UniProtKB/TrEMBL annotation:
Belongs to the ATPase C chain family. The chain crosses the membrane at residues 46-68. It holds the Pfam family ATP-synt_C. It is found in: Cell membrane; Membrane. The gene is atpE. It is a multi-pass membrane protein. One of its GO terms (molecular function) is proton-transporting ATP synthase activity, rotational mechanism. Its main location: membrane. Gene3D superfamilies: F1F0 ATP synthase subunit C (1.20.20.10). This is ATP synthase subunit c. It comes from Lentilactobacillus kosonis. The keyword Glycoprotein does not apply. The keyword Transmembrane applies.
Length: 70
């Protein structure tokens, strides 16, 4: 039963991270198209945002391992 819960948690985290990354990158490109002079700052903020979004699947993976080993 723990393996099923871990799989569902990982699937949700992967889907959420994919959607989140897509939104972050699309909004960054939209902002760069509107204000090209801000592209450096937008790119920096985009990398920070992507890093925070990618932390979610990593945490979900650790939690899934803990659930499976219980």
């Amino acid at each position: 039963m723990g393996a099923i819960a871990a799989g569902i948690a990982m699937a949700g985290a992967a889907i959420g991270a994919g959607v989140g990354n897509g939104l972050i990158i699309s909004k960054m490109l939209d902002g760069m198209a509107r204000q090209p002079e801000m592209s450096g700052q937008l790119r920096t903020n985009m990398f920070i945002g992507v890093g925070l979004v990618e932390a979610m699947p990593i945490i979900a993976f650790v939690v899934a391992l803990l659930v499976m080993n219980k």
